[in-house]
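Annex B, item 7. Sequence and structure tokens for protein A, then protein B.
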Amino acid sequence: MRTTKRRRHRGWWFLLLALLSASACSSGNSVESSADEGSVVRMAVTDLQGLEELQREFGAFVEAFEESTGLQVEFYPVNDRVAAAAALQSDQVDLVFTGPAEYVVLRERVGVEPVVAIKRADYHSCIYSRADSGITSVGDLKGKTVGMSDIGSTSGHLGPSQLLVDAGLNPRSDLKVLTVGDAVHEALKRGDIDAVGIGCHDYEEFMETDNPSNYKC
């Protein structure tokens, strides 16, 4: 079920990861004012849970940030974008590193403003199935079950849903969509679902630990 590169890019110019400030929140504090007061910037990341994971994934970023700005970064763990919105609203965090879909939610709920946007190369969504499934195109998924990662995920939910729509399918009525998190690939191998819609970077990681010839993308 290969999608062309042009098609993958369609409608995805906004796929940027945004660093947001709480300057438009009810507290009225900006990143600059917070930094002036204590030289500490409190930062959260919406798709990472736990302080240990934050330190492991963003440790190098923090070192470079602190060296270039002279500010100190203090991690603030959150479980999801809802918790991030609450933390911004209650002035518990200054910056949130998040994805484009989460940014839309945060902007609507809290009124955040973007500070920095980072464009990721080859940030696309893929739909793949088992090679023996008989599925040869996205249109063949009508009446089937497709596993995706998390509700609201840009590459693992919104992107695959758009690919279905581009193929003339209604994700709500023409097929069944299950959001099963990181278990999507294993669910496909067990036969619990007929296909997977996920970020292409995740697909490539799965193929590093599996036999690519067993699947069609």
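Protein B:
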Amino acid sequence: MEDLDKLKKIETELLKQFIQVCDKLNLRYYIMYGTLIGAIRHKGFIPWDDDIDVGMPREDYELFVKKAQSLLPENVFVQTIDTEPNHPFAFCKLRDNNTAFIEDILQKHKINHGVWVDVFPLDNYPEDPKVYKKVHKKRKFYKRVIESKYCICAKSLTVRLKKLLKKLTFCLFSAKKAVKRLDELFKAQPKSHHYVNHSASWGPKEALPVEWFGNGVLVDFEGLKVNAPEKYHELLTKAYGDYMTPPPEDKRGSFHNVILVDTEKSWREYFK
């Protein structure tokens, strides 16, 4: 991707702003996924990665999305279903208003398309298999509704037709209501011994012991001191296996199908 270094610099600045708000409000957070691997293996981004992921225990997350906007610079937008009705995710994105990072599947939608950092709520995991099955079924249904409303911009005609069929199938359901229902479903799970990011798609593999997170431990990331789960080795080993060995070159690259990146011009310039 062109301008990858510039993109990483903006994302790192967003992370810095995020951490400052968390410190001011005394909120817990942890770097997650590829960001965590990058911090441990590279002391920064995985060289071919293009985003930053953080997780927050639900109670901290709720305070963050409620209070953060007034504490952030004007160019940073706290994007949730409550701050932007067409936001298609049950988690928060911090967006830089002065940039553009437009994904293929969302290119037609009227939302903020600035460079982002993903902020995920960490919720309780249903430890009873029967309860998990019910939650998973509802989660799957609501996600299909959301996909049917938003993700119909794929270039393949076959994929477009399949997504159009989904849209017709779920035409009686509101995407906004589906995102709200997802959020309510995730928040409603009773207290357990495991955290889970319900917005991910790993299923039971995503459930991680609360004790592995603890108060966190500071690690280096692109010149910043950032909070990682206390037992990050156990967490990463469960999720990825030998996380210290980079994957083969043909397995490296971004998971985002991005059609446009502009680190110097606002996304608004492309949606006039």
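Comment on protein B: The chain has one domain: 4-123+197-270.
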